[in-house]
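If your schedule permits, I should be very grateful for your opinion on a structural question. What I wish to show you is a protein chain and, alongside it, a tokenised description of its three-dimensional fold. Would you kindly read the sequence against the tokens and tell me how you understand this chain to fold? Here, with my thanks, is the record as I have it:

===
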Amino acid sequence: MALAFTYSHHSLDYTSTKYNDHPWMVEFDMSLCITSGSEDEPPVRPQVYLSEWRGQKVALSTLSSAEYREDFLHGVSMLQALQGPHVVQLVGWSPEDLLLVTEYHPLGSLLSLDATLAQERYRSRDTWQTRLRLAVDYVAALSFLHDGPAGRRVMCDSNSLDKTLSQFLLTAQLRLVVNDLDALPEVDASRGLLAKCGPRELTGDFVAPEQLWPHGEGQPFSDRLMPGYDERSDVWKIPAVTRHLMGSVPGGDLVHFHLFQIHQRCRRPEPLGRPSASDVLLVYRSVYASMGREAAGSRDML
């Protein structure tokens, strides 16, 4: 498959000094479709292929419909603006072909975490340390999105636990990177800029209270009347995501004990009563460090 392709300045280690902002004609070997739309709904998300470029495996994402071109371009702009340790590495893109190429992570999304850690090669790493470090990575990514170079961004593709987990990739080092950035509206209270994550009514206790229809069952949902919200809606979800990430490993109960107070603050009904993601991150890192010291001290006593 040949196409006009723009390389990212943040490309992988196999970039060369000749890469610039001008398109180059390049060849991709598309071998395996990793994801696709389900049979009972249109493929809103891109199809992702395991591809090869210059001897390196990459993930090649292509849209099935130009209807989602604006989402595609927004996702590319966010990937460009947010390149760093918390975000999947961008190799390049082709706006004409609605195609995006990123670093390939064979372990897939966080949805496969338990299955991955159940494999024989990873079983010894299924510990509270590994799982809490993933939770730290998750909160660090939120903190970066909320206070990063692209402004204050809300992670809108997070209206359920599974949807949230699908936004993150698991690296070979069992760390997390954000992969899907095509739904990151900017919020800024000083400019009256608030987010609404889609035009449909959200339900359930995973989403924050301010994301629920506030006018009761007597009044039909209306996107026009639905109030906006800010990045604290992401903070509300942290305890539920961490609870899932921790699973039922030995030591997990102690992690939950240490995080109890900050999680209570995350679940306050009023958004302004919740901590920022950066405040939560400080607590998470402190708990990880202190529990690590306690574990090391216990081993020394044996």
